[in-house]
Structures are given as structure tokens and as C-alpha cells.
């Protein structure tokens, strides 16, 4: 998912994304949804959340390694 789409989603949840990188915004969304804030963490090695919205980005490694803001 592109950073602008992530920001739009966060804004809809009243999450202030100013100065936050994509990974942190996604974790804030996960927390707001009462989910584990695990995006792009070491948990990816044992993740079995097949229906996670962020799964493709998280597993691809590109989001975990980028520094997009």
C-alpha cells in the first residue's frame, strides 16, 4: 500500500501522522484497531496472520527496509 493511502486511512481514524514513517503509521493503525502493532518487526518470521491487510508489504521486506515518510 502506498504511503498516501496509509496516511488517508490513519487520518480517517484520527491518527496524527505528522513526522511519522510508514512503518510507524501502520503500527499506530494496528494499535487503534486493537491489534498487535507488529508491522515490519521481527515477528514477521513467525507470522501466520493470513488475512492481515499489511501482510504483503510486511513480508515483501520493502516496507520494513524503506525510510519513506
Structural commentary:
- The chain has helices at 3-12, 22-32, 55-60, 62-65.
- With 69 residues, it is mainly alpha-helical.
- The protein has one domain.
- Helix 1 (3-12) runs parallel beside helix 2.
- Mean pLDDT is 88; it is low at 62-69.
Task: Work out the count of structural domains.
Answer: 1
**What ranges have pLDDT less than 50 throughout 5 or more consecutive residues?**
62-69
Helix-strand pattern, N to C? HHHH
Strand content: under 5%
Shape: globular
Rg = 11 Å
**What is the count of β-strands?**
0
Helix percentage range: 40-55%
Structural class: mainly alpha
**Biggest β-sheet strands, sense, barrel:** none
Alpha-carbon distance between the two ends: 13 Å
Query: What would the average pLDDT be, to the nearest integer?
Result: 88
What is the number of helices? 4
Give the tags.
single chain, 69 residues, mainly alpha
Amino acid at each position: 500500500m502506498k504511503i498516501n493511502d496509509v496516511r488517508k486511512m490513519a487520518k480517517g481514524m484520527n491518527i496524527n501522522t505528522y513526522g511519522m514513517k510508514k512503518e510507524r503509521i501502520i503500527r499506530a493503525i494496528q494499535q487503534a484497531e486493537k491489534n498487535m502493532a507488529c508491522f515490519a518487526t521481527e515477528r514477521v518470521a513467525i507470522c501466520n496472520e493470513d488475512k492481515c491487510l499489511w501482510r504483503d508489504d510486511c513480508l515483501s521486506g520493502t516496507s520494513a527496509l524503506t525510510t519513506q515518510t
